[in-house]
């Protein structure tokens, strides 16, 4: 009976995820989407746990796991919505995009992040923008932060790759210096390989000299802090 229950839960989980894909994530608020996905994942995990405990416990495990997963998922989704809104309030010049439960931002000269040509040192304008971001990151400590550096195509490719790494690290180090926990960060760097605009014009190159930031939920950290 336990094996049959697990198969039924897996089948229902697949159908539900297909339904979410069909209606589109934009139809749901992040908290609602998190609750649905969390509930499905919790139910599947609970069924496995229940089955391991003893014959006939799979359905009970699925119910418990689903309730716990839905609660955690809704909590995470709601926190990510709040964090995105706070960033928009603190740094209105930056475009904040939320995809499922992740927050995406691009920082370039148009919204207060400047680097001198060939340099990775943060100037006062960039520091002020990052200071505002750091305040939000500290306020919402249960997230992971990915910082990715990019350059335009001026100069040698190897030098640009190194420069993009140094710029991303400069942003990370400044945020850490403002009090954001070091263990939350991951740094990636792409040099000139992922242009956002053409490198044939000054305006396009300006857009390509950028630092992108992705903020992701840390479900384990959220549940740990709430216990």
Which helices and strands appear, and what pairs or packs with what?
Layout (H helix, E strand, L loop, with lengths): L1 H22 L6 H24 L4 H33 L5 E4 L2 E6 L16 H16 L3 E8 L6 H21 L7 E5 L12 H7 L1 E8 L1 H8 L1
Helix pairs in contact: 1-2, 2-3, 3-4, 4-5
Output the helix-strand order. Answer: HHHEEHEHEHEH
List unreliable stretches of 5+ residues.
1-11, 13-20, 66-72
Shape: globular
Number of domains: 2
Distance between the termini: 34 Å
Please estimate the helix content: 55-70%
Largest β-sheet summary: 5 strands, mixed
Mean pLDDT: 78
Rg from alpha-carbon coordinates: 21 Å
Structure annotation, total helices: 7
CATH class of the largest domain: Alpha Beta
Second CATH tier, the architecture of the largest domain:
2-Layer Sandwich
Q: In what order do the strands lie side by side in the largest sheet?
A: 1-2-5-3-4
CATH superfamily of the largest domain: OmpA-like domain
List keywords for this structure.
disordered N terminus; Bact_OuterMem_StrucFunc; alpha+beta; 5-stranded mixed β-sheet; OmpA-like; 60s Ribosomal Protein L30, Chain: A; 5 strands; 227 residues; 7 helices
